[in-house]
Amino acid sequence: MAERKTEIAIIGAGTAGLAAERSARRAGARTLLIDDRFAGTTCATVGCMPSKLLIAAAKAAQGIREADRFGISAGPVRIDGKAVMQRVRRLRDDFVSSILETFDALPADSKLKGKARFTGGTTLDVDGLAVEARAIVIATGSFAMVPKPYRDLDNLLTNENVFELDDLPASLGVIGAGPLGLELAQAFARLGVKVQVFGEGGKIAGLGDAAVATSLRALLEKEFPVHLDVEITPEKVSGGTRIRWSGKSEGSAVFSHVLVATGRPPKLDGLGLEATGLDLDDHGTPVFDITTLQCGAAPIFIAGDTNAKAPLLHEASAEGAIAGHNAATFPKVTPSKRKTMLAITFTEPSSAMIGKPPEDDTIVGEADYSDQGRARVEGRAGGLVRLYADPKGLLTGASMAAPGTEHMAHLIAWAIESRQTAADLLNLPIYHPTLEEGMRGALRQICKTAALPVPEDRDEGNAAGV
């Protein structure tokens, strides 16, 4: 068997793998990036970017559809499904091309195409080539899970093939009410597709705050039905798939296509982890230290979606950098402070989870956006923001589902990262009329409960911002 030696081997050329390779190389290590396809990152190919392209088209259609409320008659919306999907793929491919250029820029001897499998703690087999490394980073990403009842369906869709549709489906049953399922469900619904969403659990968009989740669900159900806490049974029938559901609600409907969005577990099958001697959790994922990404005491590190800790692009990039650096400096590994958790779902309204969930002594401040001034101006009134703080008024987290959430969530995440109190935020400039000023009422509630001085402003008590 042919042999090859390197200092740091990185398995997987996605966002985490690329960040790990750069970080290890900057630390002075000789790297070898291994991937079975070198096709691009999940975000660019089948995730963030193509989904946002579809959402952008849907937003344009919805804007025309709702123009009448402003006294503007735009006529009936005519949607060319083929043109929509062609634009999605064309611009998606532009984003992917930049990733491919990154691959091309790597020295030929620092990348290896093939499927890697562990043969020992620091040795790999890559399609018959033996690779020996001083340390290894696992960054194999995740895959679209399709539960067994759905695997034989005709016209089955996941995020990995939905963007290859030549035209919009006639109707769509979405299995899974998480961020991915909801984003695509609303986008297709706004593009004229008959959509229903089904979730076996009770959560929506992953939100743990029941009040915010209820608010978001009510707003989304103005556009398409959302069935939660139901048992789902699919059945192939003429013309598509019949979905039967029972539980909190019950019914039956036939869809031309079914989109399964039930999660993306780590891609670990075939990796040969049993040869590493690592401790594995109940899901077969190596046990690791979140601050160093090191698996036990071994020279093996795990980053990105593969460790299932926070399957988000910015987290994957950060983890890749941490893992790559620690692999290069092993046996010295340096713990890294993790940034404030920030997860956003790009529905309309968008929703977000920030920081830590509430605890028994958490102070909660609430802002209702159903009568917020700027939201009313834009015809987007509705939603709820709940901010969390410790007993001293220090911001610790938030749950949001309101207009402008994707932007306001960053402000709260930055405030948490900067260790600011609710009073600190109220002392900062807040322009009128904006969506951001709608949060003042929630901040004041926290101040009063924490016995912090409530800063004076010209509009005391008026959370509507008018």
Which secondary structure elements does this structure contain, and how are they paired or packed?
Blueprint lengths: L2 E9 L3 H12 L4 E5 L6 H5 L1 H18 L15 H25 L5 E3 L2 E3 L4 E4 L2 E10 L17 E2 L13 E5 L3 H12 L3 E5 L11 H11 L5 E2 L2 E8 L2 E8 L3 E5 L1 E4 L39 E3 L10 H17 L12 E4 L5 E5 L7 E6 L4 H5 L6 E6 L5 E7 L3 H13 L4 H5 L13 H10 L17
Parallel strand pairs: 1-2, 1-6, 2-3, 6-15, 7-14, 8-9, 8-14, 9-10
Antiparallel strand pairs: 4-5, 5-6, 11-12, 12-13, 16-17, 17-20, 18-19, 19-20
Helix pairs in contact: 1-7, 3-4, 3-5
Our estimate of the beta-strand percent is 15-25%
Overall radius of gyration = 24 Å
CATH superfamily heading of the largest domain: FAD/NAD(P)-binding domain
CATH class of the largest domain: Alpha Beta
Largest sheet composition: 7 strands, mixed
Total strands: the figure is: 20
Quote the distance from N terminus to C terminus: 75 Å
CATH-level-2 architecture of the largest domain: 3-Layer(bba) Sandwich
Low-confidence stretches: 458-463
Can you tell me the number of structural domains? 3
Mean pLDDT, to the nearest integer, reads: 96
Helix content: 25-40%
Family: Belongs to the class-I pyridine nucleotide-disulfide oxidoreductase family.
EC number: 1.8.1.4
Organism: Rhizobium halophytocola
Keywords: FAD, Flavoprotein, Oxidoreductase
In short:
InterPro entries: FAD/NAD-bd_sf, FAD/NAD-binding_dom, FAD/NAD-linked_Rdtase_dimer_sf, Pyr_nuc-diS_OxRdtase, Pyr_nucl-diS_OxRdtase_dimer. The chain is of the alpha/beta class and 466 residues long. Helices cover 29% and strands 22% of the residues.
